[in-house]
Fold these 3 entries.
Entry 1:
Amino acid sequence: LILFCCAFSIHANTLSSTESLTISRNLTIVSPGKIFELGFFKPSTRPRWYFGIWYKKIPERTYVWVANRDTPLSNSVGTLKISDGNLVILDHSNIPIWSTNTKGDVRSPIVAELLDTGNLVIRYFNNNSQEFLWQSFDFPTDTLLPEMKLGWDRKTGLNRFLRSYKSSNDPTSGSFSYKLETGVYSEFFMLAKNSPVYRTGPWNGIQFIGMPEMRKSDYVIYNFTENNEEVSLTFLMTSQNTYSRLKLSDKGEFERFTWIPTSSQWSLSWSSPKDQCDVYDLCGPYSYCDINTSPICHCIQGFEPKFPEWKLIDVAGGCVRRTPLNCGKDRFLPLKQMKLPDTKTVIVDRKIGMK
């Protein structure tokens, strides 16, 4: 008599109202194509547990979204479940420390589902459409994935932005944020706490002026949408087998990483700010910055340093006119290869085309 004992591992991409995930059981949810995985994790030796999403197919554990980044579990007891139409995380005392806070019909059964895009969604059980009650893509952490939007939903007032980690292995909200400012001309700003340290320049129909690296490549396409319903940035991959992501680092760098299977590591494609001249308002008013000169700050033609002792080395003063403005004689001069000035207070004639 031969006895066979078989162990099965079933990877489901949904969580029903009768199921739960706990730290102790170490169960996870895997997307249909086994691209992303979701569950509890501990990123360091400290006793702090988080619930998040990471790449399943990539051996190097790379987290792309964290639910309770500012309310970690302090011990190895925690539960994720569906309660009253919401996805909630309960601590060891069954007290909610995080919730999706949706307002759906609690009488209708719902499920949580992890998609192959890396999007965790809540939907009604009998509805497989793209109409979600809640989705993690609306609440980014420090990472922007393909098909994920960064910017404003003008119908709901939702602002999707990135917030850096506190440190490389601490998902707590850090000092840097990456937000879309929707003035007359929209552009992204990187803020250190609440102070701007970098901006992309406005979108010119092809790219953000200060980010030439965003031009279309062989494997990624950027799309900037601005209409009555939304103003947002997203990107798509031309190859489903290529994994790439945008990330705001804990050091204040906006970076693109692409996974290289042959070397089994993430490759840094580009990062912003690129150099010292990318720093916001480095040289002050009526000046420009040239990284290839010393000093790097210069006054625009017709202007001089506000303080003669400044010599455009200290960045405190900026420049002033040599002579008063004369609207009858003064003229405009072109400045080539420049990032357009801050556009929060400009007037734009949108009937004028690119040419």
Entry 2:
Amino acid sequence: SKKQAEKAVHQKKEQSKTKCRKARRRHINLVAEFNHRQRKNIWLETHIWHAKRFHMVKKWGYCLGNSPTEKSYRACYRAMTKHCLLQDLSYYCCLELKGKENDLLKQLARICSIDSGLTFQEACCLSGRFEGSLNLYRADRYPEDMLGPVTFIWKPRDGSENRQLWIWVHPALKQDILRELKAIFQCSEPEEICITEPVITSIQEEKQVEVVTSLGHKRKKEDKEGEKAVPVKKIIGDGTRDPFQSYSWIARTTGVAISDRSMEILRYRLIGPLSHSVLTETLKAASVQTV
């Protein structure tokens, strides 16, 4: 009857008000939804914060904050000059080189020149105390065929002849520089392509997103046996690499290994006179136990 219908509608309204608006609007699985939305452009870890305050742009396989939605330019300038301003540079790509120090320096000398500034062999940088910056060129082609600017950090010496070097490159330059590094060190493709975890999680996410209908009606996600599906893990990926491509290469003659560590090592830039104070207050030295 009409009375019963009105009663049912009234009860439905009462039930909907039992949860707060935030809880009612929450996606059935936020991580699955976020993974689905990152299929084309990877998010940085600070994405949610930036997305609420910035106009976002899609560049180089990432979703990046471009300009603030509010007039906060004066606040940013004030932070840079008097306080501390933090930028998320995690979209910069990290290429890791491992091998004997002499083998690394011998080949790296071919793609840079002392005439253009620092080289990988600079004493203060080679010790691991300071970060260096230089321009890279195609092997034995200086001053022609410049690849682009990079920054680099050597891992401090541990008494072994084996060293570790991180080269940070802009995502637009990554493929060219990676190709040149593989060529000078004669690194071959691995026999079996290593599939990283993000591929597995994206397949799980595909299955789970399917059960959420486009109309917004949600039902409990279940697998074939009727049990609750395993929660989807967060994507740890790279916007500049196809997930089915390999991410590590090795030279059979020298044993030098090149690894693509993009988005595995986060990077932040602190600007301003209080940057050092912020770091000292935030970071605490770990207690090293000697056996």
Entry 3:
Amino acid sequence: MKPKVTMIAWNQNDNYVVTAVNNHLLKVWNSCTGQLLHDLVGHADEVFVLEPHPFDPRVMLSAGHDGNVFIWDITKGTKTKHYFNMIEGQGHGAVFDCKFSPDGQHFACTDSHGHLLIFGFGCSRPYEKIPDQMFFHTDYRPLIRDSNNYVLDEQTQQAPHLMPPPFLVDVDGNPHPTKYQRLVPGRENCADEHLIPQLGYVATSDGEVVEQVIGQQTVDQEEPGLEPSILDGMIRQLQLEQDQRTAADPEAAPGAPQNGEGTPRRG
């Protein structure tokens, strides 16, 4: 097999370069002289994740399709910590990406089974209040294109970025309780009745009919007694300011000819 470099990363102070090779070895090089310093042995499949520690130049993280996550001391060429991503009943999960937190005390990984793995110091109690399965109900909704080639949500015929904030559901599409729905940006201050999604029956690809979230309750901001959307208010304020500028200076309006030219300026 012809060796090929699959990933490359500099350490924090640029004194070392680490390369991942398709023979499953990691190689540590002196970045000034090009001298090979260490061969790091441990991975059993290709490595596509190399992450330097944000402030410790000795530390490098690697992860790969074999499910292994290693913390290396690249100055000594030794393993410091090792984790194997074994999933009960499904074998190992390939690790696709890893990132350190800015303070270097934690790192997070994502794997081929849709899991988010968080490593760090201290207890895991802050994370125990979060359900094991968390998806937006719109994550796998089909999209279409309109006559102008713009992308729309197939069901609501709206541009995805103009739709109300999505609901949190489990892997089967069942909505989580209202206390979790408030974790979605834009739903922090909603009343309980506005956190209950509309349910319906949807046919799956194998013909089975299941109950899922099919829509969202939207709030008519003009109705008295209902809490207005902060985002809608900002949009209205920006539009009002633009209208006021247009009234004060008609030549500054989008589409008005500039300096006598016949071609309007784009807004």
